[in-house]
Amino acid sequence: MKKIAIAYLRRSTDRQDKSIEDQRKTITTWGQAHGFDIVKSYIDDAISGVVTDDRKSFQQMIRDAREPGCKWNNVLVYDVKRFGRVDNDEAGYYRFLLRQVRIDVIYVAENFAGDDSDDLIRPVKQWQARQESKDLSKVTIRGQVTLAELGWWLGGTPPYGFDLIYFDSAGKPYMIVRFLEDGRKEVLAPDGHSQRILPKGESLTISKKDHSRLYPSKPERVAIVVRIFRMYMSGFGTFAIADRLNTEGLHSPRNEQWSSIYDGRWSASTIREILINPNYVGDSVWNRKTLGKFHRISKREAVARLAVDRNRIGYNPKEDWIIVPNTHASLIPREQFVQAEKLRDSRDERCGGASFRRGRAKHSPYLLSGLLRCGNCGRAFQGNTRTKGKRRKNGEPIRTSYYVCGGYVAKGTAVCKRILIRQERLDKAVLDQIVKCVSRFTNEGGQFILHREIEQSLGHSKAKGSDGEVADVRKRLAEIPRKADALLELITAANREFIDAKLVSLREERESLQARLAEAEAHKATTGRVDAVAADVLTILSEFENAFKKGPLEEQKALIRRFVQEIALDAEKGRAVVRIRKFPLPTSAGSGNAFRLVAGA
Predict the structure, then answer these.
(1) CA 277 – CA 283 distance, rounded (Å)
(2) With the C-alpha atoms ordered 359, 360, 361, 363, is the resulting torsion angle positive or negative?
(3) Contact (Cβ atoms closer than 8 angstroms) between residue 294 and residue 132
(4) What confidence tens digit (pLDDT) does each residue in 175-215 have?
(5) Which one, of 208, 215, 216, 217, lies nearest residue 147 by Cα?
(6) Which run of H or of E encompasses 413?
(7) Mean pLDDT along residues 75-91
């Protein structure tokens, strides 16, 4: 077999001695000496090797290797560390994926013997590479704690209303950096005069001995922060504040040019992050969250994180926060911040605790969560429970459940109108229509009708399950992890709930695509087996009635999704357009018909 190879090149930072070009040169020289034809390079530059999910080129390499017709059969990498500072389980997993398609990984600088002894030595070297990163993590944490205790800013986008002012090793301020709404950075002189603007994605190069602190931003931004606190203290909630700012056309901290997940409008979650951030009273606060891959910080010491918790944001208890008072100019009087905190606690208590919307349709008590779309703004409808002032005779509060547009909930009337739809009415209307569909096949003569429609469906959907469709769905599925990676790279305290919702949307898209893939592949299996398919469908239909009499909510929601594809609500007209399948058969998923409902009818 001809020795055709690709090169995988990686470095963690742009300051490492072993540059990409150094690696390329070594690999090329070794490959030529050993008869390899190197046809392509995959490069992850300035990306950590302790995880694989963030390495887009690495993941693309694995996908390309497993594609039918892959032309190369070797991966040349400089050493074990460049392949990744992952643990042996993860490294072995990816090596196994490559080995399944007869592709070998060769470490050109490791001097492996090429025999069975490599299986003993390689895991040891892999463990050593991983351990180096763990040790470095501890050293880094010690340095970070020291800087945090001195009140320095430790990186990332500053809270809205603040810029960063940089000091040299002698303690003299030499520049101010302002983060613009579109992702660019404006560099100003200490007197506030603009010097240059860095394009989005371009980093500042500073000395390791230079540090920064928070510094009040331009007056317009500071005024908005002051106004948010005043509005909150005067009785406005976070949603009402966001609605007012959006109605007035005031720009939020980030717009669509920063990232496609933003639209330049304020949300209730952004307002809340401002209200709870102690930086606004002049205190430096660090270690509220844990993003570390190996350690978190407790009592100013590094504590190992569980492997299952790595790459997840962890929220630290307040006793582990590092708070240094009065390190920078405050935007809000301390007394006002404390009063806002007390007011927030009292509101949360009245509402039964802080009610953050997570967008988790699977665990939502609302039957149609994840299926409803607003016909006006296109956003998802979500559940909303309201408590009346009156109580029942037994003293329990009267609660009513509604569906309400998520665009209005998050960003107010600047995005969509406030219209509530009673949950029980909409649920009943949709269920009644499904019952009608079910009864067509469960009544006398229904099995004959079902048999005929399955034949028609199979006969009129020949494209379903074609190789082209399957390849297209698989391609779209492969893009989901990359989109999720891009979102996770952007996550901050201010946008966490927004990104959570986007990640949930990606998960729902993935589930939908997985369902489509299953449908397409099931088509081939069902063709020519109409009788068996009809029997399966009748089983599902018979389960419908039992599920809604005795089954748990999660089972009911799963069954609803066998029938309903999507519900588009025109809340102003009180109407819904529901795409519903003729019957819950994978091969008929694309042949849904539409019928109209009048809300409350």
Answers:
(1) 9
(2) negative
(3) no
(4) 999 999 999 999 999 998 999 999 988 888 888 889 999 99
(5) 208
(6) none
(7) 88
| All domains in the chain, ordered by first residue | 4-111 (3.40.50.1390), 162-283+325-350 (3.90.1750.20), 424-598 (no CATH)
Hey, is 565 helix, strand or coil? strand
The helix/strand/coil state of 214 is strand
Cβ(375)–Cβ(356) under 8 Å?
no
Alpha helices per DSSP H over 310-464: 334-350, 406-411, 423-442, 446-459
pLDDT at 230 over 50: yes
- Of the listed ranges 237-241, 443-447, 494-498, 574-578, the one predicted with least confidence: 443-447
Query: Using N-to-C axis directions, what is the helix angle for 219-233 and 334-350, rounded to 10°?
Result: 50
257: Cβ contacts below 8 Å, ≥ 6 apart: 181, 182, 183, 200
Which two structure tokens, joined as six digits, stand for 202?
A: 């371009």
Q: At what angle do helices 56-65 and 88-100 cross, to 10 degrees?
A: 30
pTM of the model: 0.53
Q: What pLDDT score does 478 carry?
A: 84
Q: Report the distance separating Cα 126 and Cα 89, nearest Å.
A: 10
Cα separation, 587 vs 527, whole angstroms: 9
Tell me how far the alpha carbon of residue 515 is from its chain's centroid.
21
Q: How far is the C-alpha of 542 from the C-alpha of 536, rounded, in Å? A: 10
DSSP string over 518-563: HHHHHHHHHTT-HHHHHHHHHHHHHHHHHHHHHS-HHHHHHHHHHH
**Band of the pLDDT at 354, cuts 50, 70, 90?**
very low
Evaluated on CA atoms 79, 82, 86, 91, the torsion sign reads negative
> 């407790």: which residue's tokens?
298
Q: Strand 4-11 and strand 74-77: pairing?
A: parallel
CA distance 393 to 390: 10
Question: Which tokens is 390 given?
Answer: 């009156």
Q: How many residues does the chain have?
A: 601
**3-class secondary structure, 285:** strand
Q: Let me know the angle formed at the C-alpha of 305 by 300 and 307, rounded to the nearest 5 degrees.
A: 170
| Environment class of 61 (CB within 10 Å of its CB; exposed 0-12, middle 13-18, buried 19+) | buried
Q: For residue 8, which of 126, 85, 106 has the smallest C-alpha distance?
A: 106
Tokens of 593: 């018909």
Q: How confident is the model over 536-556, as pLDDT tens digits?
A: 666 666 666 666 665 667 667
pLDDT bracket for residue 237 (50, 70, 90):
confident
Q: How far apart are CA 551 and CA 555, in angstroms?
A: 6
Mean pLDDT of the chain: 79
Give start and end residues of each alpha helix (H) in 174-312.
219-233, 238-247, 268-275
Q: Which of 82, 96, 76 is nearest to 52 (CA)?
A: 82
Neighbouring C-beta atoms of residue 178, cutoff 10 Å? 20
pLDDT of residue 311: 60
| Beta strands, E only, 46-204 | 74-77, 104-107, 162-167, 173-179, 185-188, 194-198
Neighbours of 559 (CB within 10 A): 19
Instruction: Dihedral sign for Cα 370, 373, 379, 385, please.
Output: negative
pLDDT tens figures, 253-278: 998 888 888 888 898 889 999 999 99
The two three-digit tokens of residue 465, written as one number: 């399950």
Neighbours of 429 (CB within 10 A): 17
The radius of gyration computed from the CA coordinates of the chain, to the nearest angstrom, equals 29
